[in-house]
Amino acid sequence: MNRKKLDPEKSPGAAFGQRLRTLREERGWTQEDLATRMGYSATHISAVETGRRSPTLRFAQSADKALGTGTLLERQSRVVRNTGLLEGFPEYVVHEARATEIRLFELGIVPGLLQTPEYAAAITSGAVRRGAITEQQAEERLSLIAKRQASLQRTPPPLVYAVLDESCIRRVVGGPRVMAAQLDRLAAFAELPSTVFQVAPYDLGERRAFDLPVYILTMPDRSLMSYAESAQQGRLERDTKFVQPLLTAYHQLQAEAASQAVSVAAINQLRKGTP
């Protein structure tokens, strides 16, 4: 039996997984035993114990009830989730680092995978000033963005399809100079052999397929998963019957959006008006 060694110092999620495994084994239960008592799969239990999946509040409460631990795991799960990242996103990032194809749609701001360090810093600084996240959480966000961008340099690189709402390139973040560098970054991204870049113009109107940010991954085994988020929460979806319609809508969006050549021309036109 393969037994992964856990390092509780690695992250709050790893510490939660270690405690869950310890509590389970103290009762002489297998992962299947705990899964049955909680109404989850043994695979889900294993993923949480090894830190590959973050515990949701519902999961922690269910574990406390099954193990008879009061609110112990619920309280610890709040520490795991107190990262300034939406629920589901840390788990999504793990899969993103393995995906062979990444499709993304973003509104309002340039997505993290395409941000310059200065642009990313301006976004997180704004969140700190508003009291939405702490300085420590801001540092965590910036570190994660750097890691995600570095993962794109793997061999072979993933194919990245990016459709940005026009608001992403028109909304000035960090001042004119930061925005100018960000526009340059987008133009350079479009030139890469493993990327497709498009802008969804304002006049797309009701033909725009999405009203919220959406990410769709194609994994090495050609399976699909998606991640979508609102201001309050994010959700990672693996069920093909839910992901496939999103992929179809994404293809429709690509057909309606401006071509890469037109999109880059729009960026260059905006760039002329920045320092």
Report on this structure.
- The chain is α/β, with parallel strands linked by helices.
- The protein has two domains: 70 residues, lambda repressor-like DNA-binding domains (434 Repressor (Amino-terminal Domain), Orthogonal Bundle); 183 residues, 2-Layer Sandwich (Endonuclease, Chain A).
- Helices cover 51% and strands 12% of the residues.
- The chain contains twelve helices and six strands.
- It has a six-stranded mixed β-sheet with strand order 3-2-1-4-5-6, with helices on both faces.
- A hairpin with a 4-residue loop joins strand 5 and strand 6.
- The termini are far apart.
Cross-sheet strand order for the largest sheet:
3-2-1-4-5-6
Largest sheet: 6 strands, mixed
What structural category characterises the helix and strand content? alpha/beta
Write the element-wise H/E pattern from the N-terminal end onward. Answer: HHHHHHEHHEHHEEEEHH
CATH topology of the largest domain: Endonuclease, Chain A
Name of the top-level CATH class of the largest domain: Alpha Beta
Strand content: 5-15%
Instruction: Please report the distance between the alpha carbons of the first and last residues.
Output: 61 Å
Gross geometry: elongated
Q: Could you give the count of β-strands?
A: 6
Low-pLDDT segments, ≥5 res: none
Cα-based radius of gyration, to the nearest Å:
21 Å
Quick check: average pLDDT?
Answer: 89
Q: How many independent structural domains?
A: 2
Helical fraction: 40-55%
Number of helices: 12
CATH architecture label of the largest domain: 2-Layer Sandwich
